[in-house]
Write a structure and sequence with these properties.
The chain has twelve helices and ten strands. The chain has helices at about 10-30, 35-40, 40-55, 75-85, 90-95, 100-110, 115-125, 245-280, 290-320, 325-350, 360-370, 380-400; strands spanning about 130-135, 150-155, 160-170, 175-180, 195-200, 205-210, 220-235, 235-240, 280-285, 285. It has a four-stranded mixed sheet, with helices on one face. A four-stranded antiparallel sheet has the order 2-3-7-6, with no helix packed on it. α4 packs across α8 (about 245-280). The structure holds flavin-adenine dinucleotide.
């Protein structure tokens, strides 16, 4: 079997354009605002950044061509998203930040033509932002989505939704919400969820406080959202009733991998900064980069970057073949989330005091990448799922042999 990892010419050209755009235009803006997108101007800043990305020919690499995007599959997205992730503001500039990028992917796969016109088209063009509302305060859905408590009950002409969500990225200022609500069964049941689409201005949607999380690079924060007798028409159902958990997988597998792509870019930036520093800085009669323990950190970063990329390549290959890639994405996500944090942490260590200061981007990269070990499935949940599949297969093999 011949393995060809070279990129098609147009993808390589997009990678090159993205690299130049991010380094020349976006990194300086991120540095000027210490990676805090609200301080940089929030949505107004997003609109300006996205116009600059359009002008540079790098906007919306993921969106279907008919919606103004480049229509890249998962494998081709990987190197482009990695270049975008080199700056914390890069994904927003290209319109590939979470949750919009994952929502574009899901709407392209599941929405009907009317929903695509109303929601996907403006989202793909960057005219609006969106939010994906799944997680709930205890005892509701978190690592265990089946704990879902938000309810949608049939009402005249549609559905009435009640429930509380939190950690909803981008909720403040979003144009619309994708809401996961229980339409049958009880909390703890594995099925019975439905996804609903609702414009943000609909009476019954209230955005509450921002949760003050470590990170600062996502427009619209991570918010509480209250659905209080929210009335939506039948046409608000995304896909089919009671298939919400299934659709969540359509979104989550690829969304996990695009997070890996973006954060890998951030980790590479951290590593580049640290390597430049230890190649320059002297101590104990040599460059720091020639000291054994620093060399170990440099080498371990290189290994973590290469291993993350390899696992990502495998998972994207499966996704592009139309497979669920559940195990491959769990493995890649778990390894990457931990490796990316290690890379940034080692990079800070190599830079000494400067590493934890505002003079270098490392401290801000560290605060951004830490939550990735929690969202899109905490490492423990993925390990649990990987082990269950592995032991389950061994049990089946044992049964078959008896
Ligand atoms: C920055 C950020 C952005 C987010 N954006 C969104 C968003 O846009 N939309 C949305 O719906 N949600 C969002 N979330 C929520 C995120 O999806 C949840 O935080 C995540 O699913 C974990 O749920 P939880 O926080 O309730 O943790 P819990 O379910 O309370 O779990 C706590 C810890 O318990 C451990 N644990 C859980 N299950 C197991 C297990 N089976 N075995 C061993 N250990 C286990 C893990 O260590 C886990 O971290 C976001 C979260 C963050 C931090």
């Amino acid at each position: 079997m011949a393995i060809d990892l070279s990129l098609p010419g147009e993808v390589q050209a997009l990678v090159d354009r993205t690299r130049s755009f991010i380094r020349d235009h976006v990194v300086p803006l991120e540095d000027a605002h210490d990676g805090d997108i609200a301080a940089a101007g929030g949505d107004k800043f997003r609109v300006e950044l996205q116009q600059a990305a359009r002008d540079a020919g790098v906007f919306a690499p993921h969106a279907p061509v008919e919606y103004g995007g480049h229509g890249l599959g998962m494998s081709d997205r990987a190197p482009v998203f990695e270049e975008a992730g080199y700056s914390l503001f890069g994904p927003t500039a290209l319109n590939i930040a979470a949750p919009d990028e994952g929502n574009v992917h899901m709407l392209a796969h599941i929405a009907n033509p009317e929903q695509k016109a109303q929601y996907l088209a403006p989202l793909a063009h960057g005219d609006v932002r969106s939010a994906f509302a799944m997680t709930e305060p205890a005892p509701g859905a978190g690592s265990d989505p089946s704990a879902l408590t938000t309810r949608a009950v049939r009402a005249e002409g549609g559905w009435r939704i009640n429930g509380v969500k939190y950690f909803i990225t981008g909720a403040d200022g979003a144009g619309f919400f994708i809401i996961m609500a229980r339409t049958s069964g009880e909390p703890g049941d594995r099925g019975g969820a439905t996804m609903f689409l609702a414009p943000a201005g609909t009476p019954g949607i209230r955005v509450g406080r921002h949760l003050d999380t470590l990170d600062r690079s996502m427009v619209g924060g991570h918010c509480e959202v209250f659905f209080e007798d929210l009335l939506v028409p039948e046409s608000a159902v995304l896909g089919e009733v009671d298939r919400g958990f299934e659709y969540a997988q359509v979104r989550l597998g690829p969304a996990r991998m695009t997070h890996v792509m973006r954060w890998l870019g951030a980790a590479r930036r951290g590593h580049d900064v640290a390597v430049a520093q230890v190649a320059r800085r002297e101590g104990f009669g040599s460059k720091l980069g020639d000291l054994g323990m620093i060399q170990k950190m440099v080498a371990d970063n290189e290994i973590d970057i290469a291993a993350t990329r390899a696992l990502l390549t495998r998972a994207c290959w499966e996704l592009d073949r139309g497979e669920s890639a559940a195990n491959a994405t769990s493995i890649a996500k778990t390894y990457a989330a931990e490796a990316i944090f290690r890379i940034v942490d080692r990079s800070m260590q190599m830079c000494g005091g400067l590493g934890v200061s505002g003079d270098l981007p490392l401290a801000r990269l560290s605060r951004e990448v830490r939550p990735f070990r929690i969202y899109d499935g905490p490492s423990e949940v993925h390990r649990w799922a990987i082990a269950k599949r592995t032991v389950g297969a061994a049990k089946r093999a044992l049964r078959d042999s008896e």
